[in-house]
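Aim 2, interim progress. The first record below pairs a target sequence with its C-alpha cells.
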Amino acid sequence: MNENNEASVMGSILKRAYSTVFFENWPVWVGGVLIGIMSVLTFAWARPWGVVGGLRNWADWFFNQIGVYSHAPVSPLISTNSILVLGLLWGAFGSALMSKQFALRMAPGLELVKGVVGGSLMGIGSAMAGGCNVGGFYIATSALSFGGLAMMAGLIMGAYLGLRYLYWEMMHLPSNPPKGGIGKRGISLVGIEPYIGALVFIGAILAAWFYAREAYARVGGLLLCGIAFGIIIQRTRFCFVRCFRDPFMTGEGDMVRAVTYSIIISILGFAALKWTGLRGEEVYVTQTFWFGSLVGGIIFGFGMLMSGGCGSGSVWRAGEGHVKLMVAVVCFALGNSLFKALIKSSEGLKALIGNRVFIPDFIGYKWTVIILIVIFLVYSLIATWNEETDKLTVEM
C-alpha cells in the first residue's frame, strides 16, 4: 500500500471516528453512566456538581453592580459554583458546534412568556429546596440527604401538574409560529461550525492552563469537569425533565433508567468518599427537609415543564442556541438570587424551610445505600412497567 492510500485510509478512519462522536447521538444510558462517574470525580476533586449556585453567583454579582445588594459576592471568574456552570455552557456550546447542531432558534411569544414564568418558578423552587434538579435532588440524594428524596417527590408532583397545565394550554391557547422569516434551525453557521467548535475547546484548554498558572488549579480542574458535563449531556440529550415527565406524557422509561444508573453510581461514590473521611459527612446535605425540599420541588417541577428545561437542561439547551431557554436561564438566576435573599432575611422563613437530615445518622451507611438503591430501582421498574401498560400516562 503506497503512502497516498495509507493517508486515505487514515483520513477515512478519522472521519468515521468524528462522525461517531459528534454526528451520532450517544445512547442515553451511556450519558447516565458517564454523568454518575463525573459526579463522583468532581466531588473527589473539589466539590459536588451543581448548577443553581453558579447562576445565583452571576445574579448576585449583577445585583451588586447595579446597587441592589451591598455585599459583593465572590467573583464569577473564580467562584467554583460559577466555573462549573460556565463549563457546562462552554462544553454544550462547543459540542453543539462540533456536531453542527448550534443555531439561534427563536420561539413564539407565548413560549417566551413561559420561559420567563417557568424560569422564575425554577428560581423560587430551587431557593426553597437548596438547589435545582441537580443540587437539590441528584447531588443531595447522592450526599445521602433526606432532602433529596423529598425533592424527588416534589418534582414528580410538580411535573404531573405542569403536564396537566400544558395539555390545557394546547386546547385553549394555541401558539403561533415565530415571525421574522427564520427557518426551522434559525440562524445557523453550518459550514464553519466545526472549526469554531474546535477553537472553543482549544480556548477551554488554554483557560484551564491559565487558571493553573495563576495558582487556581482547583478552579481550572472544575472548569474542565463542567465542560465534560456539557459535552456528555449535549451528545446524549440527557434530560431530567424527561425523567419526571415522560412516564406521565409518553410512557417512555429510557430516561428514568438512565437517571437510575447515574444516581446509583453517584450514591456509591459519595458514600465511599464520606465513609472513608475523604469528604465531610454533611457536605451538600441540604438544610431543607422537609418543607423546602418538597414544596420547592413541586414549584420547580411545574416551572421546568413550563420552560421546557430543568437547571442543567436549560443551560445546555441555551448553549445550543434556544432563545426561550436563554430567557429561562436569566429569569432562573435572578429569581433564585432574589428569593434566596428573602429567605436569608427572615428567621421565620428559614425555620419553615427545614433542617439538615443526614440519613446515615439514623440507620448507618450500609442500610442508607441499600434503601436508596432499592428506591431508584423500584422507580425504574415502575417506569418500565408503565411502558408496557400505559397505566400512568395522562390523557389529554
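The second target in this work package is listed in the same format:
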Amino acid sequence: MLPVIEPSTFSFLKTLPSGIVCDALGRLGLSGFTDGLYPIRSDTKMAGRVRTVQFAPRRGAEKSDFNIYRFIRSLDKGDILVIATDCSNSWIYGENMAHEAQYHGLAGIVADCMARDGQELAGLDIPCYARGLAVRPPAFEFVATDVPVSLAGAQVYPGDVMVGDADGIVVVPGALLADVVYQARDLFDLESQQEKAIRDRIPLDDLLEVMAKKRIAKP
C-alpha cells in the first residue's frame, strides 16, 4: 500500500526550487538528485508521488501484454509516471502518451531516455522530463511496474516523491517526506534571510552567520 500524501504538501513543494529540496536532503545525509534529465519546457514545476515502470533492452525471448496506457489509467491523479530504461538513446514516449497522462490527471512524466515530438510536448500542460529528444525508434521490453528503479543516478522507489523544475529533479524517500519538508521550510526561510542580508549590505560576518545556518539540520 503506497502512502497517502496530503495535496497541500505537493502544493508547498511546487513553490520551492529543486535546489532547496536537494539541500534539505543533504542536511539529513540523504542523496536523491538525478543527472542529465531536462524538462521539455523551461517553466516547468512538478511535485508528486512516484509510480515506476522498468524497461530493458529488447531481447525477444519473452512476450508481454503490458500496455503502458492501461498502466497510466490505473494511477491516481497527481501521480508521476517514472520510466526507467538504463539511459537508452531512443525515445519511449511522445505527445500521444503525454496527452493520455495529462488527460488522466498525472502530475508529470519522467523518463531516463529520450522523448519524441518535442514541439508538441512543449505545448502541453503536463511536465515532461527526458534526457533529450530523438527520433531513434524504441527497442525495449517491459520488465515490471511499481518496483525500485535506478534513474539517472538516483534510486527511485514507488511511493517516493519527486520535485522538479528547470534545474532538474530531486527524489525524496516517501518514508522520510515529513522530515525533508520540515528541513525545506527552514531552508526556505533562511534563503529569504540571506537574500535580504545581501540586499541590505549587512556586515560580511553577519551574512556568513546566516549562510552557516543553512548547513545545519534544524532540530
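The first helix runs from residue 7 to 13. This observation will shape the mutagenesis plan for the next reporting period.
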